Prior knowledge:
Number of strands: 2
Low-confidence stretches: none
Oligomer: single chain
Radius of gyration: 16 Å
Order of helices and strands: EEHHH
Helix content: 40-55%
Distance between the termini: 59 Å
Number of domains: 1
Structural class: alpha+beta
Strand order of the largest sheet: 1-2
Shape: extended
Number of helices: 3
Largest sheet: 2 strands, antiparallel
Amino acid sequence: xxIVSYYNCGISSQGAxxxxxxxxxxxxxxxxxxxxxxGELRTVQGQLExxxxxxxxxxxxxxxxxxxxxxxxxxxxxxxxLGTDFKPRSG
Length: 91
């Protein structure tokens, strides 16, 4: 029998108000998210949302490597003014 936590998800990592829901999540996953969140400067909720987004994107795009999807998700969170224009290599 696995131990399960109830985790209350109410505000997204982007600050948008969301409905509050209680979900049952395995304690081991919450503990792993807590450790990863410290290293990534996220909340536990933000880390779980990040992992869920990468997982959802990987299922929807099975031909893309998970690492590429993770980098893409991170790049979408960067402010536009910090981005650089794409310049294709001349062939």
